Amino acid sequence: MSKFDILNDLIEGRLKDSSEKSIYAELSADSAMRQELRDLLSVNNSINNNKSLFVPASGAKDAIFGKIGLATGGAAVATFWNSKWFYSAMSSVATFLIMFGVYLGLGELQDESSDQIAQNFEMQQIELEKLSELEVNNNFNDNTNLIFNNNDNFNKKQSGNNKIAFASNKNEKANRNSDFALRNLSDEEANESENSKITSSDKEDINLYNAGINFSELSDNQVTSFYLENNYQIKPIDNKQQEEIISSFESNNLYSRFSLEWNNSESVHFPEERITPSEFALFHKNSLSMLYDINDRLTIGANARQETFYLVFRGLGEDGIQRIYEQQPNLTSFSGLLRYDIFEWKNELPLEVETFTELQLGGNTLGPVGRIGFGLEIRPTQNITFVVSGNYSQLRYWHQNNGFRSEKFSLNYGVKFGL
Amino acid sequence: MSKAYKTYSDSELINLLSNRKQESAAFSEIYERYSSMLSAYSKCLIKDKDIAEDIFQESFIRLYKTLKKKKENQNVPGLLVTICRNLAYNHSRDKKVKVDPELVSLKSEDPIDYENKELMELIIMAVEFLDEKYRRAFMLREFQGLPFKEIAELENINLGNAKLRAARAKKKVIEILQPYINDLEKS
């Protein structure tokens, strides 16, 4: 370090004690060094004594830019590749890719889980054997099915997909894509079958749906269970047996109450943002929620998201001058959430539509965050739900022991997958 | 992928002024770089705060117009100081004030003593003679009061280099002003 650098560190208070002692000793013996110190102090004092001069009047920038016809708060980003539109497009693509990947992955899980269901029902069939009023076929273990009817609540929330467990030959796999875990009946066999009896000359696959059983005409809570005997006759069971089957189905099917939801969002900040970050986080505007259905209406969950909040706050700078700071930092927020289904819209379309209200409480590195909103769930199939919602978010943060808040309204859109 | 505007040189920002989509952001960066310096300079030249603010704003407006017309080899801080000085001079020349000695207090309300103010003007003028990277480090440190860590991040250099540039810039300013500092000390 040169002498000037040492003297500069001395007057800015960055020298260690031991170094200070030696420099003072050197100063006492070196007049040129003392002159250099005086010059440095003159310049430093002149600047430090006039710090207030360096602060332009508030509103000066707006006035200047207004007169020359430019927008203030120009983005710190240079091209489309750093612009918020690029990041919006990229986050939408990321949302789609991740949703698609999760959907494919869940398909594998559900294939495995259907096997488990089939096994569980096979075990339940063994239990049913002990119940009265049932005619047990000697070939009980072959080609048996349990069917659950159009009990909407049960089918949607508890069974997950209106599934019918195919509990017979352990090597048979349930077809997860259909409403019933069935094997297929040939057309000829389906035409030959009667409404209440399904026959098959051999142990080929049987499609009970094609057999003409009209499940929509079954009354609520009625369960039809049957054994496929030698001649594949259908026999009803009573309510007690129904309850036992349903409860065993529930206990082995808890996973279907879980769902994964991925959302993208567009926000409007209050006050309106005047600056934007020079770069956005990788999953900017994306959020992921893990949800659990407590019952038909109530859902709890956890949410993680990457977002920005526009901050405007006052503080004392290092030079003692009061300043207004504006920032829009990238933040990762975590929240717990509570969702309540308000209303289900019954319609003629093959869609289930429900409205909900949601509350989220959580936080990020800056402070606590609260969100409240309303939304719509549109369910074309049991496994997939499209979600659109709007919410109000508020972040509370502190600077130099003073509290501030940042607010925004967001429109969120995404997809929820039943697990 | 392009770098953020903060890492652009003055010349690169001036070139962006001809691009309608980027001129607002480019001029905004120029404003952020030199507003502190010009604010202090205009207040040193003009005692009246309101007039100083008007001259401050007018200096940037004229800078914008000048840069839009001629883009080659423009020294932005030098231009700003020159424009500001000319405007201040025009204001003083055009101002016609009738002073009633009985009504005017002889005590100055300006808290800044004359000696420091004169040196302040000289320091700001000396800044325009620095190389751009040293000028920026000096202004960020001395005029805007930023810590070295933040200067290093803005300039995309390490902490040691940030300290070194600020120190070298200060040394250069003192060298430029050496005769004036000596005169001020003697007076």
Beta-strand percentage range of chain B: under 5%
Q: Pair with the most extensive interface? A: A-B, 44 and 53 residues
Distance linking N and C termini of chain B? 56 Å
Main β-sheet of chain B, in a few words? Answer: none
Characteristics:
heterodimer; A: 419 residues; three-stranded antiparallel sheet; 8 helices; 13 strands; 31% strand; B: 187 residues; mainly alpha
Topology:
The complex is a heterodimer of chains A (419) and B (187).
Chain A: H1 3-11, H2 17-29, H3 31-48, H4 60-68, H5 84-128, E1 144-148, H6 152-158, E2 166-167, H7 187-192, E3 223-226, H8 239-251, E4 258-270, E5 286-293, E6 298-308, E7 311-316, E8 322-327, E9 330-345, E10 352-363, E11 368-379, E12 384-399, E13 402-418
Antiparallel strand pairs in A: 1-2, 1-3, 4-5, 4-13, 5-6, 6-9, 7-8, 9-10, 10-11, 11-12, 12-13
Helix pairs in contact in A: 1-3, 5-8
Chain B: H1 10-16, H2 23-45, H3 49-69, H4 76-94, H5 114-127, H6 132-143, H7 148-155, H8 159-186
Quick overview of this protein structure:
The complex is a heterodimer of chains A (419) and B (187). Chain A has 419 residues and is of the alpha+beta class.
Polypeptide structure, described:
- The complex is a heterodimer of chains A (419) and B (187).
- In chain A, a hairpin with a 2-residue loop joins strand 12 and strand 13.
- Chain A has eight helices and 13 strands.
- Chain A has an eight-stranded antiparallel beta barrel with strand order 4-5-6-9-10-11-12-13.
- In chain A, helix 1 crosses helix 3 (31-48) and helix 5 (84-128) crosses helix 8 (239-251).
- Chain A is an alpha+beta fold.
- Chain B is mainly α and 187 residues long.
- Chain B contains eight helices and no strands.
- Chain B has helices spanning 10-16, 23-45, 49-69, 76-94, 114-127, 132-143, 148-155, 159-186.
- Chain B starts with 9 loop residues before the first helix and ends with a helix.
- The model of chain B is unreliable at 103-112 (pLDDT under 50).
- The interface between A and B is large, with 44 and 53 residues.
